[in-house]
Input
Amino acid sequence: MLLRYLVTTASSGTPKDARVSQNHIHATLPVSAQTLAALREYDRSYYMYRIDLAPNVLFLIIFSLSLVGFLGVYIKTRRALSFTLAMCLGLICEVLGYAGRIMSWENQWDEDGFLVQIICLTIGPAFLAAGIYFCLQRIVCIFGPENSRLKPKQYPMIFIPCDGISLMLQAVGGALASIASHTGDDKAPGSNIMMTGLGFQVTTIAVFMALTADFALRTHRRVQEVGDGAALNQNPAVVKIRNSFKFRACLVALAVATLAILWRSTFRVVELSGGWTGELMAEQGLYYGMEGTMISVACLALNIFHPAVCFGEMMDGPAKDGKGGAISTAAVTHDTNPLMRAEPGDLEKNGDITIEMK
Output
């Protein structure tokens, strides 16, 4: 019990077991030579601290439940396939990663658990970010594509490949670090590639946030200039979605998830910049706060306000009119332009909602 107390102090901010001095230990609690030897043994494991079991089990449960939640919503709604695939791939990585850390708790000198957790927990958030990128395309359609600098389809066309590059760099870096640990070679080249991938991910998310903010500002300014009728998509089904509490709450959830992933990725860049024996690598509590907690917040926010539920049928493209016809995503401006008006007989044509010039 004394050993367990001493070697788990990193998570509570007290001196780390991997670097604590013998004099400090004697000044804190009387320990035996065997205890000191055991403490020093962890310095030669794959971690710079004694892994705590409880937080890893907690995160394993959270991500497992989140994964079940995303699968359940898709099974029920059959919407947002691309979003669901991205989120599920990310969550599978998270589950495997924390399972790897539990393996390491049982044996910190076992390489398999270390490699599973370092690779899976590094690349997992890249998939989660991809899921968020798919949502912006739908948001642009709901508010009105003419308010965006880019066409709706261009958002995933730009950001998904960038996410793929980030993922590839992180995977290659992890593989090289794994090989280096096998051969006893320097891990720095692999770490640098992983750090480059994480840095590219941070840059991609930052650009994504900038374009999202630009779209929001352009939409707001256009509403101020010409009014809702001309600036926003006025199809009734789309207006209903846009004015709903669920949709607005989902926008907040997406913003929170994006910031959480950005925060986490930035931390991992800083952490890896110090190398495998840097100060941040020895901060177990900080790791759980910046890695596990941030990703938990991102996933749970989107579980609670799931885009497939909050965006309705707009999540898979143009919404339906209730008769099988597609609702156009173009803004309807009959409120402001007398030449554009919809008569009852004009609304249904071959199953599609259309607006004809009169």
Observations:
- The two ends are 84 Å apart (CA to CA).
